[in-house]
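Field: sequence (string)
Field: structure_tokens (string)

Example rows 1 and 2, in order.
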Amino acid sequence: MTRTTIQKINQIGVPVKDLARAIQFYETQLELPIMFNTDSMAFFDCKGLRLMLSLPEKEEFAYASSVLYFEVADIQQAYADFQSRGIVFSGPPHCVVKNGPAETWMAFFVDTEDNTHALTSNRVAS
């Protein structure tokens, strides 16, 4: 018997309180391309991974999402650029882990729906 294996994550759902406000944030400030939306959901393309914003169907689903980590090439440049778009960060980019010559840097922010997300970037230690 063949066991089923997960191939990849193809969609991440983020609960929102105000869909129009959330669409504005993800489309304008994060500049993610919107695929389509309905009265209760909006779908964005993040390089092949679909991000779904949705009004919770039941109260039990009305909570902040998991942290989404958006990869960028240059975290310092992205940090400055996103700040200029009005995104407020909890602090500047910082190294969260060193693995030999490689470093992983992150900068955390909150969207309009109180979901915490981060910009992340890997680079060679200087």
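Row 2 begins here:
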Amino acid sequence: MESAKNHFFSDMSVMLGRSMRHIFRSMDTIFTVCITPIAMMLLFVYVFGGAIQTGTDNYVNYLLPGILLMAIASGVAYVAYRLFLDKQRGIIERFHTMPIARSSVLWGHVLTSVVSNVISVIVIILVALIMGFRSSAGILSWLAVAGILVLFTLALTWIAAIAGLSAKTVEGASAFSYPLIFLPFISSAFVPTDSMPKVVRAFAENQPVTSIVETIRALLSSQPVGNDIWVALAWCLGIMIVSYLFAVRTYKRNAA
């Protein structure tokens, strides 16, 4: 049992290294993921920010959590794209002819998504600091924020894996991310939900992004998180578990 575990982790580290080499050889992938969220942040802060009433003097602080979620939703699309290419080119089948743990191929892509999205989040936070973002949060609050963002990344990455393994075209592999990227717009990420029509407000207040945004916002401003953190964790864990099960099933059926 112990040797089997060691075998799996060593194989997974090799697959992670392979995927990360692809990232570092094409750093434009990370910059491309960052461009749209940063552009949105600049647009909303310097163009729309003066007309939006959020009850806070620093709109960057209010906006940043939603921008981070948007960046992650954009970043996971590359997982679907790379998995689709590996499947289409027969690379996954080739790996399966080797004496390696089969699941390590899939996990290599998933962990690469986490690492690359962490880099993107750090870049966006640095830009936000230049724009005036400030936080009174302590180390524990920042660790909690990091944990929630990683859970959110894993949840969306497993959805991306399903798309990449099921798609028939490159466009189909990447298209799934569009609704996820725009989901923050129908939430409290950019404006308070109080200003929305009743139907839109009902949706906005009961979808995953709002509870996650509110939790991160409260943690970064050293405010009580209330029940939002439990709702956010429930959404992240629920989506991650369900999508993981479907992704593994799809992997075994379509690529194994």
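free_text_note (row 2): The first helix runs from residue 2 to 25.
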